[in-house]
Amino acid sequence: MTSFLLPETIVAHDHDVPLDAVVPPIAQTSLFTFRDYDEMLATYRGELARPVYSRGLNPTVRAFEEKLAQLEGAEDACAFGSGMAAISATVLTFAGPGDRIVALESIYPDAYRFFETLCARFGIQVDYVDGSDPDAVEAALPGARLLYLESPTSWVIEAHDVGALAALARRHGVLSVIDNSWATPIFQQPLGLGVDIVLHSASKYLGGHSDVVAGVIAGPKALVTRVRNEALPYLGGKCSPMDGWLLLRGLRTLPLRMKAHQEAAALIADRLAAHPQVTSVAHPSRLATLPPGLTGWSGLMSFAVSERIHIPRFCNALRLFRLGVSWGGHESLVVPAQVVLSQAAPPNAALAFNMDPRSVRIHVGLEGAEPLWADLSAALDAAAAPSQDTARS
Ligand SMILES: *Cc1c(COP(=O)(O)O)cnc(C)c1O
After folding, report:
1. Ligand 1: which atom is nearest the Cα of residue 153?
2. GO cellular-component terms in the record (predicted)?
3. Catalytic residues
4. Where are the domain boundaries for CATH 3.90.1150.10 in the chain?
5. How far is 326 from 343, CA to CA, in rounded Å?
6. Can you state the percent helix, strand and coil of the chain, rounding each to 5?
7. Architecture of domain 7-252
8. Confidence of residue 3 (pLDDT cuts 50, 70, 90)
9. How many CB atoms lie within 10 A of CB 118?
10. Backbone phi, psi, residue 279, to 5°
């Protein structure tokens, strides 16, 4: 399709749906039978493209893949049973024993743990660099196989110049991959910035209702086909039909939801920054200018509080923000850095170093900006120790 479509237009319509149903049915089936011997033979010979078994092609999952590819401006997409399945299949398709990967420091903690455990066992070495230092990134690239990016990052919320980093990778013949879960294609289309493969935890904004765990990659057909054929069938982390259907439904409101997250997050970030007990706010809405290619922001941010705020009491006083990991759904969430830093399997050393122990990460959901601010501000009040002067009087 050559005509320019808005994201709103892409997500609204489905094509070739049986019975012209507005909502496509769920192909909730593990296998697809053949009418006769010849049809089976032609399919096995590759002369006929049709579903055989749902670990390979499933029409519901395929409909989601096609829509996501359109949103990312990609030739093709491939969906997985989780974001980590998408990450591991992609990395293991393009890197093998003796290869080196360059990854950014503050990436998603389980991506880091995957690099440090399975990748290390398979003889893949990973070097970590600061994404805000292009010279350091470039110095690490010669001889590398893969540049693994995440921007904006989802724990310390740093936005990098993705186009510049992708250009460095290209100059050194290194394949670039980016985790675009935070921005979604609504606010950042990395392929247009020169990145080779974009991936998502679809469990976050793409699903958008906190009822799906899934992942997806998008990019040029040749690269997506390699992941689809070389890693997905054997690692087996395929997106299920039901989840594909829920993702199609989630996408319908993605452009609307992202605008609502953006608006509420800007208000919350501004109010937090003006609060006397808040010492810093990490959210792209606070930047004087956004990095090139990032056209908006989502609802995930972090902020640090002064010593006067008792963080456990703050978390317990919140009513609308609930304690929980993940993000990207309709609901507002809070995660205190102190808890993350004391977990048994801590995040990578650089991320831990970059995390302010006085900070909390919040996801600004869709409950309405003013009620959410009222909740945060009441909880800050409830958690504030009396000031020195008041205490003495
Ligand atoms: C959640 C998350 C992942 C992993 O996705 P799952 O669907 O939980 O496997 C990857 N990257 C980021 C940035 C995430 O937040």
Report:
1. 13
2. cytoplasm
3. 55, 108, 179, 204
4. 254-392
5. 16
6. 45, 15, 40
7. 3-Layer(aba) Sandwich (3.40)
8. low
9. 13
10. -95, -25
Q: Give pLDDT tens digits for 172-182.
A: 999 999 999 99
The pair of structure tokens assigned to 20 is 């012209």
Residue range(s) in the chain whose domain bears CATH number 3.40.640.10:
7-252
Burial label for 246, CB within 10 Å (0-12, 13-18, 19+), is: buried
pLDDT digits (tens, 9 = 90+) for 194-218: 999 999 999 999 999 999 999 999 9
Nearest to 301 by CA among 258, 274, 262: 262
Q: Which atom of ligand 1 is nearest to the CA of 85?
A: 9
Distance 32 CA to ligand 1 centre (A): 31
Which residue has the CA at smallest separation from atom 6 of ligand 1?
A: 83
Q: For residue 327, which atom of ligand 1 is closest to its CA? A: 15
Compute the distance between CA of residue 80 and CA of residue 240 in angstroms, rounded to an integer: 8
Which two three-digit tokens encode residue 208?
A: 């958008």
List, for residues 279-325, the tens digit of each pLDDT value: 999 999 999 999 999 999 999 999 999 999 999 999 999 999 999 99
Output the six-digit token pair for 216.
């997806």
Q: Which of 91, 178, 203 best tests ligand 1's pocket when mutated (most atoms within 8 Å of CB)?
A: 203
CATH of domain 254-392: 3.90.1150.10
Q: Which residues line ligand 1 (CB under 6 A)?
A: 82-84, 108, 110, 150, 154, 179, 181, 201, 203-204, 213, 215
